[in-house]
Amino acid sequence: MANRLAAETSPYLLQHADNPVDWWPWSPDAFEEARRRDVPVLLSVGYSSCHWCHVMAHESFEDRATADYLNAHYVSVKVDREERPDVDAVYMEAVQAATGRGGWPMTVFLTPDGEPFYFGTYFPPEPRHGLPSFRQVLEGVRAAWTDRREEVAEVAGRIVEDLAGRSIGYGDGGDAPRPPRPEELGAALLGLTREFDARHGGFGGAPKFPPSMVLEFLLRHHARAGSEGALQMVEATCEAMARGGIYDQLGGGFARYSVDGAWIVPHFEKMLYDNALLCRVYAHLWRATGSERARRVALGTADFMVRELRTPQGAFASALDADSDDGTGRHREGAYYVWTPAELRGVLGEEDAELAAAHFGVTEEGTFEEGASVLRLPDADGPADAGRIESVRSRLLAARSGRPRPERDDKAVAAWNGLAIAALAETGAYFDRPDLVEAATAAADLLVAVHLDEGGRLARTSRDGAAGSGAGVLEDYGDVAEGFLALYSVTGESCWLELAGTLLDTVLRRFTADDGTLYDTADDAERLIRRPQDPTDNAAPSGWTAAAAALLSYAAHTGSSRHREAAERALGVVTALAPRVPRFIGWGLAAAEAALDGPREIAVVGPAGDPATAVLHRTALLATAPGAVVAVGEPAADGAGGADGGGGADADTPALLRDRPLLDGRPAAYVCRHFACDAPTADPERLARTVGAVGASAGA
């Protein structure tokens, strides 16, 4: 019989609905049941595309004897970390504090009051690699619960007290928090330079993750300060990733991370957030340099998202699994993506297979498992015929499409869709791809229709067009606002600016403390053992820095001092962290670059459909000036309200477009920052020089 998870909507929870374990979803009822039975709670946290989650499920949760033991002595609770990032964050912090490391599956034992007292991640079915077996852990925890209850309570109490002491607060003494100054951003650059892998790109060693937010900071730092070293780190990293196995050389899109330091062998799951962030990074690299490879990768990644992750409702699914059927009934990681020389010959014939093996690095020994290779590009472009290579690529892609496909987690996460909206809107605008802008708009429409209620509150997830039960967290509000602001800049449709303001007002009202610090959950959210609060980036921008960046952009669009001050207070944490952990505060550093530069406010006024308006608008969008905001629209009627929003026939005109007439009857661009404006211009080349629109001369 199916367990209680059969009634859930999360694809990850549904994967466990037929386990013999009597799973509960996260709920007060589960903890009440543990209290009634006087047993501990086993909390198991994972996500649908997590390889080792699948392994532990098959080894332990599908095993009848293990399930019987769990059912007799525990209340077992299964959580999808993507649906409940607040639960995941609180207990992951405890795991990392206690063990020095974390990861998924996360295995935590709790009292019926939700207090953790024993931790781990993956446990094997038999002892190996220095790990006890899962059964040994279960028996040891049960013995401690039965025979040493006071010790368990003492440990749990100490952990909860330690977590409570980790809250971040500016306090009411000393100077007010402030954004980083040039010297702190310079110190961050120096720290990144020390950790940069000059041979392979990226930062640190294996496993190596795409440093998307850090790359955005480096691009902005180069634009503001002229640091060639910052740009070189971006170019080297993006080149290495684009040539490596982490990038799908046939179908586009990026895998989650590389298991080695040279980007050769990926962990094959493909996540929406990685691809949205990297699509934007490569588009911004093209904008800064005109790089043809950056253009190809940006468009290839955008096309992957639309082709492989778009749902029938217009949103974007969370992930593709790392594992798939290898054609023999076995589920293996990477089976969909890897090739042997014999498989190349079977598709291409001898001559083209030889070319493909040399071009994509396929060897008889293999670079992965069982003699298979991950496709990648050589370190230098060779003389191979481009047309022939494209023919090889398209034939391999067609053949691969006949393989059993990885499973897709088709729930839509608000935050990650916000990132995708921003990436697709900008990429579509840069490269004259209105279909990408339309895809971004459709996803935004879905978020408004399904995720956003009349009170300005977001649901975290949806599936099949129905909202999930989990409340949105801070990253949802920050990233969706970011997406809406990007969509406004590209389309000129003021509804997206207004909706971003609605979301950011909720941030100020529900997520912001009196001293300007931010929490990951709303003040009326479910109370956990601690209210999560983390300003550092993980795989995506932290909610704290995502909200700060969106507040800053919204203030530039509207002239709102309230939003500007909130952004600056929030960026105070970046001032403290930038010199110490720059790799983990990249999006905050990027926002700080925007604050230092202004950010610049670019208003383009002119009749819709006028080619001169379109050229000025595109030039404005290609501005490399950090965090520059763009508004485009018809000139306001005479007597329109000023920047304070008062009076006039067009008081609803967005602030950047007010009091902006045509220039001698021609479309014009206005550029302002730090409360001062340049003279308006109708000349796209002059505008490009003013805002650093390098890509404007490269064309689409």
Automatic annotation (TrEMBL):
GO terms for biological process: carbohydrate metabolic process. InterPro entries: 6-hairpin_glycosidase_sf, 6hp_glycosidase-like_sf, Ssp411, Ssp411-like_TRX, Thioredoxin-like_sf. Residues 3-163 form the Spermatogenesis-associated protein 20-like TRX domain. It comes from the Bacteria. This is Spermatogenesis-associated protein 20-like TRX domain-containing protein.
